[in-house]
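Problem 3 from the worked examples.
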Amino acid sequence: MELRKAKVVMLPTKDTNPPLHKGRDGKLRVSHTPFPYEFPQHLYVIIDDIVDKGEYYYSKLGEKYNQQIRKSEYNRGVCRKIIATTDKKLTLFNNITNKTLCVPQLSQMDVDMFCRLGGMDEVNIVCDVLKAHDSQGNKIVEYNIKVYSDNEIILYPVKVSWSKEELVTLARDAFDNSCKYVSFNDWLKNNL
């Protein structure tokens, strides 16, 4: 497994139940019900990759306006492919299972982190990497985004160094979300 960089785009929505809202002051808040003068938002994780027919992509024609989410009607080549979102209206048909599924979703933990950090332009995502060679001996590398059983991907912030206080906070959050029966200090010794 490897980490691959992706971009996060936040766009306004008319949905009545989005996961986050942006206030007039630009601050983000996790909530399904807006306060007055807050604007509902969805998050889209995009990568520059080949977009096949039936997949969603992000199109930015202008600086602020004409930003659109579209479903491709043909193979588009390399484009800004949507690999995960908070928008449950984006669905894909799975030919193997013959079922329609939501595009992989962001976990609530990722949405909380996005708001706590005041937004993130770039994130790391976990990928399985397949390496092979074609008939001419050229190296082919294919990245498959790791989607967990709950149809979610996990985002990791792009950051080079961490302070001790940040690590303790992240570790405490991980402990609180994963283990209720062990003390924090014992969990820290076993996991770090």
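Problem 4, a separate protein:
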Amino acid sequence: MRRDQDFRGGLSLAEKRGEQRGEQRGKRHGEELGRLLEACEALGVELTEARRAYVDGLDPQALADLRRQIKASRAWPREE
């Protein structure tokens, strides 16, 4: 009985930690996306539907990298 309780308690703790990590990732993604959108607006870089769909799929680091590229070139990176 005790073993089952320990197992369930361990699962509960793991689930809670997983939820916290997911929330942190989501928060960071939202912050980086906001920074990218602000940079695009400030620099007059058009964010088309296709570009928006693209950035929605990026992780926070890729969003930050893209924002740096846009700020440096004052344009969306070349599309190939």
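Solution to problem 4. Residues 2-73 form one domain. The chain has one domain: 2-73.
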